[in-house]
Amino acid sequence: MVLANDKDSGNEIIADPHILPASHLNYTNGVAIFAYIDSTKSPIAYITPSTTQIGIKPAPFMAAFSSKGPNTIAPEILKPDITAPGVSIIAAYTGAEGPTNEDFDTRRVLFNSVSGTSMSCPHVSGIAGLLRTLHPTWSPAAIKSAIMTTAMTQDNNREPILNAFYTKATPFSYGAGHIRANQAMDPGLVFDLSVYDHLNFLCAMSYNATQILSFSETPYRCPSKAINLANFNYPSITISKFNRTVTVTRRVKNVGSSPSTYKARIIKPSGFSISVEPEVLKFNKVGEEKSFRVTLKSKQSSARKDYVFGELIWSDNQHYVRSPIVVKW
């Protein structure tokens, strides 16, 4: 069987364990084959022995089936957070069912090629476990921050990561980018969150006292002052209802090996001006925290109907702490 992708599946090839002998083609090659079949009365094909290919370009690119943003529950929080390997991953497999999960599949294998969040998640979980071992005092939020701020957004062509249709992907596809374990071990700075930050997040989401008690274990009284979720100390900045000007606050902690000075660099979203105050953060010791403000301005409300994307990068010339910026009028 020759299985050709439809347009929605794009150029993504998945090593599925077909029942029939099968060749899987991407959309571009499928179109070419159908054109050839239609061009002759006696189409001819042959199959060569399979070979292992390495160094395929472009890689990585986003799977067509990958979940995409924006976040419909809390638009002020960018989702997804991160992307990780999740297509055609060779993994140990149960002997309780066949590789296709179909009842009629009587085959049994020790290893299977599996795709999905079920494969991407273990990569991230394993890296989180390694970071916890390396930094046992880090909070879960610090671990997440280290993973997000050190992620990459370029492929092995040194071009922006693409989606399955070979068009430029966005943070709504990959979040902060593709995970890099080695860089996450030494992020330089982290955006940390306490238990109370998370409880205040639930308050902002209109959870009542009974619901919050399920998370807090002891009664928690929400602050009397309204909570602005745009100031939630997340490693990304998302403004879903921008109107001419907005200022958000973040705080970062120095988790490097020594005192250091970081300077801010901005990649502006199209149609926006951005300023950072202060532009330089000087940390006199490890563990020190400092706050900064990011102000976005724009007058082009009529021209901007969709989200636009930028970046904030703090660097001491050794670490590069990158936060996606996502804005919509």
Could you outline the blueprint of secondary structure elements for this entry?
Elements: E1 2-4, E2 23-25, H1 27-39, E3 89-92, E4 111-114, H2 117-134, H3 140-149, H4 171-174, H5 181-184, E5 189-190, H6 195-204, H7 209-216, E6 237-239, E7 245-254, E8 260-267, E9 273-277, E10 280-283, E11 289-297, E12 308-315, E13 320-327
Parallel strand pairs: 1-2, 6-13
Antiparallel strand pairs: 3-4, 5-7, 7-11, 8-10, 8-12, 9-11, 12-13
Helix pairs in contact: 2-3
Describe this structure in words.
The chain has 329 residues and is of the alpha+beta class. It is built from seven helices and 13 strands. The chain has helices at 27-39, 117-134, 140-149, 171-174, 181-184, 195-204, 209-216; strands at residues 2-4, 23-25, 89-92, 111-114, 189-190, 237-239, 245-254, 260-267, 273-277, 280-283, 289-297, 308-315, 320-327. Strands 6-13-12-8-10 form a five-stranded mixed β-sheet, with no helix packed on it. It has a four-stranded antiparallel β-sheet with strand order 5-7-11-9. A two-stranded parallel ribbon has the order 1-2. Helix 2 packs across helix 3 (140-149). The model has no long low-confidence stretch (mean pLDDT 93).
Query: What is the CA-atom radius of gyration, in angstroms?
Result: 24 Å
Spatial order of the strands forming the largest sheet: 6-13-12-8-10
Terminal residue distance: 49 Å
- Unreliable spans: none
Summed up:
The protein has 329 residues and is an alpha+beta fold.
